[in-house]
TrEMBL record, chains A, B:
The keyword Disulfide bond does not apply. The keyword Cell membrane does not apply. It comes from the Bacteria. This is Gamma-glutamyl phosphate reductase.
Length: 418, 418
């Protein structure tokens, strides 16, 4: 029953996708603007649906953090609407001729950007992802199947209805934007295997959700998310800059994937930088510090760091610290414990900056800047569907082009192969 | 036991990959030349190992076609060696700065091409794939785990030893080129789940092999292969050109994925083009024709085409034919039965050429040329690891850049996020 419903929705998405790919940018942008207006016009409806989710969430004793992510307000609805308007203002990647050339036999070959088709998005509590994902997929000519978390089901359902209706009224084929209409977990299992109708799956959420998708999907997946990020303070670093960057990378928003989790410090500068830095992190930012033996020898109040701590993405005001012999040990540590997301070195040494960026294998490698910049907006993409932590198709912040694929078009005048 | 052996090989590959990514093009190219020389110098050894496989193949009563693919000769060994030399002569994609820009806050962001890491190649009988794949992966700085077909095990083993030794002697880290050292099928199952050590799997071979990999792998897969390709002859086509292209697309090499399987003909020109074309295909090229009712009304000796025939990649001298009302019916037919590989229209109508290339969703869409050109060499890439039939990462012929991924390197001078 659940299976049949999901398949029926996916079929409808595939039919819509076939038409969507050939719509002009003007039609898509007009629809995005109409969706934004509809969200604002129907704010009360959305808040009413959200209050049902909030009530249920409080009864289920969801954490304060989770309830805050679930909560919608007038301002937050307006932000979602403005997000759609910002997407409308971005250039349309579909139709871009990436490269075109002529072969000696006269064949003219062009590589053209085209929509992927149907994108399945599986995500957790935030209702704003519903709007974001729908907007980004529509802009890139893809149909989207949205599977949000059950905690936000009423909010997501109302939002999806409103934007899908607005889109259809503006000339977008019905079925282009659909929320999976059940909270039954079986629906996810069905989506994972729907190779016939879904072209790409993007999971967004905690490690458990992402691993479930990666381990069980036969549909190609873009893995997002886990970031066990490091900052390495070299012995040739500007220590004031280093402190500034560490504090920013750890505390500016600790619950996100590009926040720093482990600090590595060259032993020659450890006794100079660690006392003021760790004291400040503890006293002004309430960060719990877990360090190696050498760290504790310098700052005695630090707790023991376990092997496990170095593997952990805390997503919290907890920092692991390790004093290292040199940059090589730092790079080896990152290789062993890192998740290839975002890594930074603080140094004024030219050769070390080159070696670090060359030898550290990660989506984003920084010299003298905070890891917190790994983000589609910070990179100037104007949008972000997630941060890929895999190497296939997309790596790092994914903007609009990452939601497209390519096709070759070949123009001849009778060429045959000899 | 098999599992432990495969994991040990994969670990070694991962270690090698860490160093391989930072080798200069000069070192890699020198190694490729040394591998080529070693193959030629040890031709006798290779032919001896191949004769064991050939003997076993004859005893197992493999088909003549399969035995021919398995067979190595002096010339074929020389071709493999020349293939490596050609790869050495290609530009190295690793290190290419695809794009670099500066943000308003002064951060300089660059997107750089880097190796993927470890590539697992699972393939069937041809021993030349062993050399090709090893050469392409080495050129792009990737370690490769080769899992060839059991029929070619002795040939592959000898070849892999020779090229791996030559590579190591030329400065390539040991473990960069490895053949999985068992014919046990369990080895494939182990590879499919080795996310910790293998970054990408590329299956090359029949539909059964590819589906096994796609259905069971947790490692990201690049799907290759199945091509149910169509040629549509429009009512505004140059019919001589159309006949030429159809004959080429069907008969020049019928056993490959870019060969044509179904011919679609506009009803207005069917009675003019089908009799000479189908007679020629039958009489001069020994092609079996299976047609729709309308085809049979025009050419009575044609056999019945079943629904199943239109879904089938014959890979043989068999052609399905359907007379269609117009281009829309042709496009709908391709949408329903096609595998999104290579599709062609023969027309002199400008608007139809535009609509066909826009509306047909396939890796390669042709106007007035044979589908047989979907090939890395024909596209001018100088190499080919396979033809991707998926939309993620790579689509169509895959050359050297498709064996790489990217990373962002970000240069700052103390930037933190506000």
């Amino acid at each position: 029953m659940v299976k049949e419903k999901v398949i029926a929705q996916a079929q409808k998405a595939k039919e819509a996708a076939r038409k969507l790919g050939h719509l002009s940018s003007a039609v898509k942008d007009k629809a995005l603007m109409a969706m934004a207006d509809a969200l604002e016009a129907r704010t009360d409806d959305i808040l009413e649906a959200n209050s049902i989710d909030m009530q249920a969430g409080r009864e289920k004793k969801l954490s304060t953090a989770l309830l805050d992510r679930l909560l919608l307000t007038n301002d937050r609805v307006k932000e979602m609407a403005d997000g759609l308007r910002a997407i409308a203002a971005l250039p349309d990647p579909v139709g871009e001729v990436i490269h075109m050339w002529k072969r000696p036999n006269g064949l003219q070959i062009g590589k053209i950007r085209v929509p992927v088709g149907v994108i399945g998005l599986i995500y957790e509590a935030r209702p704003n992802v519903t709007v974001d994902a729908a907007g980004l997929c529509l802009k890139t000519g893809n149909a989207v199947l949205l599977r949000g978390g059950s905690e936000a089901f009423n909010s997501n359902k109302r939002i999806a209805e409103i934007i899908a209706d607005a889109a259809t009224s503006a000339g977008i084929p019905a079925g282009a934007i659909q929320l999976i209409e059940t909270t039954d977990r079986e629906a996810v299992n069905v989506m994972l295997k729907l190779n016939e109708y879904i072209d790409i799956l993007i999971p967004r959420g905690g490690a458990g959700l992402i691993q479930t998708v990666v381990q069980n999907a036969t549909v190609p997946v873009i893995e997002t998310g886990v970031g066990n990020c490091h900052v390495y303070i070299d012995n040739e670093a500007d220590l004031d800059m280093a402190m500034n960057i560490v504090i920013n990378a750890k505390t500016q928003r600790p619950g996100v994937c590009n926040a720093m989790e482990t600090l590595l410090v060259h032993e020659e500068v450890a006794d100079k930088v660690l006392p003021p830095l760790l004291n400040k992190l503890r006293d002004e930012y309430n960060v719990e510090i877990r360090g190696c033996e050498k760290t504790k020898a310098i700052v005695p109040w630090v707790k023991d760091a376990t092997e496990e701590d170095y593997y952990t993405e805390f997503l919290d005001l907890i920092l692991a610290v390790k004093v290292v012999r040199d940059m090589d040990e730092a790079i080896d540590h990152i290789y062993k414990y890192g998740t290839k997301h975002s890594e930074a070195i603080i140094t004024n040494n030219y050769n070390k900056s080159r070696r670090f960026t060359e030898e550290v294998d990660a989506a984003a490698v920084y010299v003298n800047a905070s890891t917190r910049f790994t983000d589609g907006f910070q990179f100037g993409y104007g949008a972000e569907i997630g941060i890929s932590t895999q190497k296939l198709h997309a790596r790092g912040p994914m903007g609009l082009p990452e939601l497209t694929t390519t096709k070759y078009i070949i123009f001849g005048n009778g060429q045959v192969r000899g």
